[in-house]
Amino acid sequence: MRGITPVRRTFLAAAPIALTLALTGCGGDDGAEAAPEQDDGTAAAEQAAEDFAQAVRDRDGEAGCALLDEPAQDLVAQTQEADDCGAAFADYAESLPDADGIEVGEVEMGTDLDGETEIATADIAFPGDEEAGGLELREDGEGAWTATRVPGATLGGA
């Protein structure tokens, strides 16, 4: 390497190493890990709870009752002295502390006593901190969530 000074030789040798380290981020672990995917049904249960709250706000019996299992549908109809859930849903919504202000809070995941069925319990809040109970949803084994207990009703579910 005639004509190249020792300083220049060091620079030329170090340049590719510096470039490699810069491009690979030094190859070290920065401690950040990818967030685990929610594969426990949390996102789907939260969405079902939000859909229920929207059906209450809209007084939409078709959408609301589609999110309830059969015993919960019967309970809504019974509490409003109606023939079916769809006909009773708007009155059920009006019976809540403030149907327009219903909000879904934290959704807690769990299982039934046998550990076989996933259960989600959603905190339901109304303006003025009025309580009417929570919303309990169960996974049907195929990824769909249905409510087994609804706010404002003391019976129902399994």
UniProtKB/TrEMBL annotation:
Residues 1-27 form the signal peptide. Residues 28-48 are annotated as: Disordered. Keywords: Signal. Residues 30-40 have a biased composition (Acidic residues). The keyword Signal applies. It comes from the Bacteria. This is Secreted protein.
